[in-house]
Amino acid sequence: xxxxxxxxxxxxxxxxxxxxxxxxxxxxxxxxxxxxxxxxxxxxxxxxxxxxxxxxxxxxxxxxxxxxxxxxxxxxxxxxxxxxxxxxxxxxxxxxxxxxxxxxxxxxxxxxxxxxxxxxxxxxxxxxxxxxxxxxxxxxxxxxxxxxxxxxxxxxxxxxxxxxxxxxxxxxxxxxxxxxxxxxxxxxxxxxxxxxxxxxxxxxxxxxxxxxxxxxxxxxxxxxxxxxxxxxxxxxxxxxxxxxxxxxxxxxxxxxxxxxxxxxxxxxxxxxxxxxxxxxxxxxxxxxxxxxxxxxxxxxxxxxxxxxxxxxxxxxxxxxxxxxxxxxxxxxxxxxxxxxxxxxxxxxxxxxxxxxxxxxxxxxxxxxxxxxxxxxxxxxxxxxxxxxxxxxxxxxxxxxxxxxxxxxxxxxxxxxxxxx
Amino acid sequence: xxxxxxxxxxxxxxxxxxxxxxxxxxxxxxxxxxxxxxxxxxxxxxxxxxxxxxxxxxxxxxxxxxxxxxxxxxxxxxxxxxxxxxxxxxxxxxxxxxxxxxxxxxxxxxxxxxxxx
Lengths: 420, 117
What we know:
The complex is a heterodimer. Chain A is an all-alpha fold. Chain A has four domains: 1-86, Rna Polymerase Sigma Factor, Chain: A (Orthogonal Bundle); 89-234, no CATH class; 252-327, no CATH class; 334-420, Serine Threonine Protein Phosphatase 5, Tetratricopeptide repeat (Alpha Horseshoe). In chain A, 70% of the residues lie in helices and 0% in strands. The longest helix of chain A has 26 residues, at 3-28. Mean pLDDT of chain A is 85; it is low at 92-107. By secondary structure, chain B is of the alpha+beta class. Chain B has helices at 21-37, 83-91, and strands spanning 2-11, 40-45, 53-56, 59-62, 70-80, 101-106. The longest helix of chain B is centred in the first third of the chain and has 17 residues, at 21-37. The mean pLDDT of chain B is 91. Classes of the chains: A mainly alpha, B alpha+beta. The interface between A and B is small, with 11 and 7 residues.
């Protein structure tokens, strides 16, 4: 296979899987069957494109091929199909099989509608968060069960069983293949954003395992955010989340040193940050601020973006960061946000003030298992010259850290602190 | 169309033996609305949990089968086109505002016979 065909296939898999699968599942109303058909359609693309060249519109080619296979399969097995649980049809699902439901721009919308239905089905509130993440990676991103299992550090059979249970629940409980009505929509969009954010977090600071960045999952989360943003550009928090992922991911290359160890933001090489992603994120953030739409994700993105505004770590505007954190806490008073705010406060009002905040959070107890609390506490105690207490806090952080790279970093800090 | 069971739960401590009049009325009204809408298939209001008797292979014991803070008060069986429609019906259940909650489960199958008398 020549390089051009290979690239076209990889590109199509990444960018067309969701829409091809969504269009297919709308016809088959059977998730397993649709998975099989879409995989076969990609296999057919492999042989046909090598032989005849890459079609002008690979996405349309794949959708047509998958739909044809779906119709054949439905005809062949119509007797059997009456006995199995089928997905609940959406009210607007037409009886069309080959023809686009609408013409012109409508076709684009029809594809978008199906993809949205698929995303909302995978992120339905009646599914557990683990099921939502696994289903989204499998059905919306087309990731293999094996790769999803690796990402969540479970065995392949465990992940396969989780996916089977989730798919069975969709069929048996009749979770609809539908975009929710206007009344439920904001809450349901939030749920989708939560899934994407969690997928990104898992890939980005892998909770355990040997590589800090599970690039695959991070890439998928970013693609999902882009997809959702393209589908519902008017939803401001969607653009907020996209901006947050962009600005965090722009720093990907600088986050791990050449020795494979985690690097603090103060030590990161700012010249390696992806300026194109930073610019895109800043445009999205500015646009939301201009429209007075500063939700949770937009504010988090704005905080992260402050680092990209400053040419060096020393020039970061910590007063503005504290102000943004205050605004964020007004919307979403999570103890983790308060902990992160404490770091910014240490820059504006000194370590003593910040330490009081951290100790307040410590006695609150909700962050008992959160490794960054003792890590930040150690960082503040160091600045106050309280070495023994700092060391105790660092030991605690080390005990809680489950990621090898993070552990290495904490161990090196522990080590460097000891000779003193 | 599919059938869903809606189980009504409340905290043991919140249940008084004298059922509060106005709370009871809210349930009656909700039940009537569902009957009028045609979505209700059956409804069961259970007697107080301390009237329950449980049976295991070891023998008979007093009280509910599961020892928990929450107890089941009753259940509805409704008909709905999909889970979202069933959840929309269940969400309006007055027990939710009264400090309790509901569980919605798809029904696999059921048989009923009119009661005697």
